[in-house]
Amino acid sequence: MEQNATLDNPPETTLPFWKVLTGTMLIASGLIFGVASALDKYDHFKAEQAKPIYSQYAAELTKSSYEVMAAHLSSDITGEAVIDMDNFKVPVKFVFNSKIQYSGVVAEPVIDIQILEIGVITNMAGTNEFSDFTNFEDHKAINAAIVAYIKKHNLLEGV
After folding, report:
1. Cα(5)–Cα(24) distance, rounded to whole angstroms?
2. What's the DSSP call for residue 130?
3. Transmembrane ranges (predicted)?
4. In the chain, how many H helices and how many E strands?
């Protein structure tokens, strides 16, 4: 049997180096591009799932509790109150407008409150201060709590 050197082999039996290199590069780059695009689509899918949903019903997901700890009417139209909102003390200065509405025999006061200022919010112990984190839904609930407190304790009679 005769041995031939590699350089002496005919072209049909040897693999051309540049064709192999080009094919390998094309397959590798296609594989890398495919994996990268699949991961990119997966990341977008995960990011869309992780976005919080903000809607008009978001307030119902995290209901807060509101309780008037103390309230004082300083004049015919102004007052101050301290609200317990989820174990935070929220001092509030407000302006109110009251009028008597007659519904049949019973005369019931109708009170409209507008919050002027929310003071420094602290924890119940009063040791930590927080910046104002209340939103529109909190303001509506605080107004309703103050109105209920004023009506329950008949604070309008003393002013």
Report:
1. 26
2. E
3. 20-39
4. 3, 6
Residue 78, CA atoms < 13 Å, CB-side half-sphere: 6
H or E stretch including 88? strand 88-103
**What's the confidence (pLDDT) of residue 108?**
72
- State the average pLDDT over residues 32-46: 75
Q: How far is Cα 32 from Cα 19, in angstroms, rounded to an integer? A: 20
Residue 110 falls within a domain, yes or no?
yes
Question: Which amino acid, one-letter code, is at 81?
Answer: A
Domain of residue 122 covers 66-153
State how many domains the chain has: 1
3 in a domain, yes or no? no
Of 54, 119, 110, the residue nearest 81 (C-alpha)? 119
Domain-located, residue 98:
yes
Query: 5-14, 61-70, 147-156: which range is least confident on average?
Result: 5-14
Q: Residue 127 falls within a domain, yes or no?
A: yes
User: 44-72: per-residue pLDDT in tens?
Assistant: 655 555 555 555 555 555 678 899 999 98
Question: Is residue 64 a contact partner of residue 83, using CB atoms and an 8 Å limit?
Answer: no
